[in-house]
Amino acid sequence: MHAAAPQPHQRRTLLKCLAVAPAWGAWPAWSQPQAALQNERKARYAQRLKALLQKGVLPYIDIESSCNASRVDIANLAAQMDVLGIGLMALSSDLGHGACTRGVRFDDFSAQTMTQFPDRFIPVGNGGQGPCFLDTPDEFLAAQTQAYQSGKIDLLGEYEFRHYPSPRQVERGQGEEIERDVHVPIDGPAGHQLFRFSHETGVPFQIHYEIEDALLAPLEKMLETYPRAKPIWCHLAQVRYIERAPRYTPAYVEGLIQRFPNLYWDTAFGNARSVYPLSGQRHSRIWAAQNSLHSAWRDLLVAYPQRFLAALDLGGDRMDKIAKDDADLRRFLALLPATVQQQLAYRNAWRLLYGEEASF
Ligand SMILES: [Zn+2]
Question: For the chain, first and last CA: distance in Å?
């Protein structure tokens, strides 16, 4: 359905994006106080991961989940993390219409979660999605990058450049939800600002970018232009319409790995049975059957184990699915060699976020 003429909202979005001039200066490196803040966090996180490992649990860092800050029950979530043996979670708050209308462009949600539970939530910027990122991309990006420069957050995301309606939005119907059928050109002004910021500071950021042949060249161009940028392309091999993405294969992803040393993927995808309702297709292409991976995808993960990250992709409308999502993720990890499991579970995220190997 996205191939039709742009919706009014999309057109408005494109015009607003084009109106933003990429006129940023170079970014200074972190000063001592910012680095000290991150070091304090890191020490607490390391302690928690070590404690879980000592219990014989494989802890993981969920690099990509989001929530509605006004509805999420953090205490309950923290308790479930303990029950399930989840190490750390990069839980991002999505700014809704209310916050956006009030002029909020960064909400300090991560500071709240860290105050309540200082050893398990990684501070992350707000989700780059409508309405704030779509309607006021310059203000939104300025607030998020400022938060990073102040040492408040360790990564940015998830930025929705191309996002079809999610399966749950399709179930719920149209109306406001259809705004999620988003297309912000990744090589437009907002994309340049984001990639350039990461290129200059080294901060990782998550992108949601549906897999279509037509979208690959602009992404590759951005990766060439900003080789030190550290994007996490969320949802490895989640292809909603296979007919739109014949070029996207394990061999194609391997080519990207070889060309772009700072490009990562997260492994938040559905299980083998998951169907994308608008196409009727099983969109998690990595699966051969319920408990086995296609050998070419498995070989890729084993050959380049440092480039993939564990993620749950919890969302405001599915926080109650954490136990199922945890089980799905662990079922996937169990199909990989033990050393690769550790890399995906927490070692890669640790290296990406903190620039060093985990010593535990
Ligand atoms: Zn996503």
Answer: 48
Q: How far is the CA of 117 from the centre of ligand 1 (A)?
A: 25
Kindly give the distance from the C-alpha atom of residue 235 to the centroid of ligand 1, in angstroms, as a whole number.
Answer: 7
Using alpha carbons, select from 206, 218, 336 the residue that is nearest to residue 266. Answer: 206
pLDDT of residue 35: 83
Element (H, E) at 340: helix 338-342
Beta bridge partners of 128: 159
Around Cβ 185, how many Cβ atoms within 10 Å? Answer: 17
Q: What is the distance in A from the centroid of ligand 1 to the CA of 265?
A: 11
Spacing, Cα 168 to ligand 1 middle (Å): 13
Residue 24 has pLDDT above 80, yes or no: no
Ligand 1 midpoint to CA 313 (Å): 7
State residue 251's pLDDT score.
Answer: 98
> What's the 319 CA to ligand 1 centre distance in angstroms?
15
CB-count burial class (<10 Å; 0-12, 13-18, 19+) for 286: buried
Mean pLDDT of the chain, nearest integer: 91
Confidence (pLDDT) at 305: 98
Q: Which domains does the chain have, with CATH numbers?
A: 8-17+41-354 (3.20.20.140)
